[in-house]
Structure formats: structure tokens, C-alpha cells
Amino acid sequence: MYITASSSQLAMSSVPLIEIRNLSKSYGDKLVLKHLSLDIYPGQVIGYIGPNGAGKSTTVKILTGLIPDFNGEVTVNGLSMRNNPQEIKKLIGYVPENAELYDVLTPMEYLDFIGKLYDMEEAQLHNRARKLLAAFGLEANADNRMDTFSKGMRQKVLLISGIIHNPQIIILDEPLSGLDANAVILVKELIMRLSKEGKTIFYCSHMMDVVEKVSDRILLINKGEIVADGTFESLKQDHADTLERVFAKLTGRDESTHETDAIINAFD
Q: What are phi and psi of 195, to 5 degrees?
């Protein structure tokens, strides 16, 4: 069953920032995305969830301009992704799930490189980089090479690189990976504050409890199709009392208890 929230719940502005129409993508004979159509509005925090292989990563790569070959239309701030990918990329901050940093660089050198890709003025770039590194607890490490950094420290640098140019749209793919509890709290609060500032957040995660808390709209994709679209309260009312159970019900994972029993019984 496909469910959707009312337009009053979804629209924080009458004009969509991102318009997706009939979006499809195939790899060989496999259709990964099946005619997706969505409107995303300024200031929304979108929780984008689904099982592995559902089409989440492909959607994100199309929205960030990493996959130029697709069917359908994607428009961002009135610009066509097909015709203006470079202009759109300036509006987006992207924090991928797995990204390689240049280990021989320091955080300041890396952020200098990223900021210049966005044509940031050098004084503003360096001032903002220092402030953000301090806010994330990395002030003392700002000029140390990153080959000695822990995964959590590297993730913080990635997060900073995704927001340093003050983008209109922030796409986060499992951004909490490797972070300690305090940093997780910081990022959750940051997402909510950025939303209040009018930023649009597209948040991909398998951490259902976090998606519940930070998202004002949840999209559930399964087998290349959006099967649920609404607030957590609306999804809960129609299906289950937790997002995990909504997820299990709508993606055919209700049999997980039986699978767990089978695993335990294997030791008998």
C-alpha cells in the first residue's frame, strides 16, 4: 500500500525546491528505480529509508549529479539536472557513506581544497573552517595529517566539508557512522537547526530511531518504488508503533522473527 501525507503536512513552501518526475534508472536489464515522482520543499528534513538494493544510493547519486544517465526529469531550484549539473552541485552539500579523504593532508588543507571547488573567498573559507573544526572538537587537530585520525574524526571532517559552503540542500548518507555519542547528539541538533534556517536535508540511514526523531517527512523505498511517504505519526497510525515495524511491514520483513528462531534453533 502506498500512503502519503497531506499537502499541508509536506509543503513548508508552495514552491518545490526539488522536483522529480518519472525518474527511472536501469543497470543492464535490472530496473533499479521505477518511475519515481516527488516534490521536496525548502526546510524539509527527508528521512530516506529502504532495504539494501532498494534504490537509495542510486537516487542520491542522481540528485548529486554523480549519475548523469537516467530517464525522467530532475529539477533543482528551477534548474534541470540534465542540462545544468554543475550549477546544481553548487547548491548541494554531500556527505557520502564511504568517502576517501586525502590522508596526507591536514583538515585545514582538505577543507581549503573543498572550499575552493565552490569558489569560496579564501579569508572566509579559512575563518569558517577553523570555527567548524572547533565546534566539532577538532581544533587541536586542524593542522595534523589525517592519516592518524580515527574513523570518527575523519567523519567529522567529511561532515564539515559537506556544509562549509553553506549549501541550500544537504544530502547525508549514513552521516553518524563512527561518531561518538556526543557527536551524534551534535549532528542531530545541527540537522534540526539547519532545517529551521530553511535548509533542505535529505537524510539516508538505517538507524530508524534517529530517522524518527529528526525527520519531518519519511520516504520508504522498496524495489525501486516509493511505498510510503508521510510524517512518522501518519505512518505509525496506519501501520505500526515504531518506524522499524513500519519498515518491516512494508518491505516484507515481517518474517524476521521466524528467521531469528531458525538461527537459535540451529544451535540445538
A: -60, -40
Q: Which long-range contacts (CB under 8 A, 24 or more apart) does 125-128 make?
A: 125/164, 128/164
CB 248 within 8 A of CB 256: yes
What's the rounded Cα separation, in Å, for the pair 168 and 170? 7
Beta bridge partners, 31, equal 26
For the chain, give the number of residues. Answer: 268
Strands 71-76 and 45-49: unpaired
CB 101 within 8 A of CB 144: no
pLDDT tens profile 187-241: 888 998 898 888 999 999 888 888 888 899 999 999 999 998 988 888 877 666 6
CATH class of 1-91+202-258: alpha beta
Q: Report whether 82 contacts 240 (CB < 8 A).
A: no
For residue 111, CA distances in Å to 43, 72, 90, 163 come to 26, 35, 16, 10
